[in-house]
# Entry
Amino acid sequence: MAVNNENATKRDLNRENILNIAQEIFSKYGYKKTTLDDIANAVRKGKSSLYYYFSSKEDIFQAVIEKEVEILKAELEKVIIKDTSPEQKMKDYILTKLRTFRSLSNLYDVLENDVAEIGFIGKIKAQSEQTEIRLIKRILIEGVRKHKFDIRDFTLIAIGFTTAIKGLEMPLTAGTYSNVDVEQSVDNILNILFYGIMKRD
# Structure
């Protein structure tokens, strides 16, 4: 039994090592330009030994993307469970999403660009969107419970926030506004989302 556990642990460590290295290579060269030979050379194993852990390049890439999805989800979950006001939580959520998402270059590339020819991407996109809606709904529900928000349709408002955040990702991390103060920009957007654009007397 101990030998089996030791073998399983070694196999898991080897697989994780391959994933970490593949993550860097995909990030550097992109999915299309990366080959199994590139990964095998970087791992210092024969290409055939990769097949012990993964069935194909797409299989490795899927595992890399799933790993990055879990990293992002874990960071956002930390924000959700913090003991802060719902308003602050929404701000921290958006800032964490923007900063973490941009650092996960493979996931960023998959969700922001058209790589539809990779079979699992559509499912990842749909799952990520549903996860985000669920997380934002938790903030909204907390806000109503604490008498900070007045919301009747949590799902619709969560979809609205999710769409707004997605719209901010590219300009605030890599586009026209990538050099501006992200925190101030998020504050400005949240003021509009929370209070609207109507002038008050």
Remarks:
- Residues 63-195 form a domain with the Tetracycline Repressor; domain 2 fold (CATH 1.10.357.10).
- The chain is about 75% helix and 0% strand.
- The mean pLDDT is 85.
- Residues 32 and 89 are 38 Å apart (CA to CA).
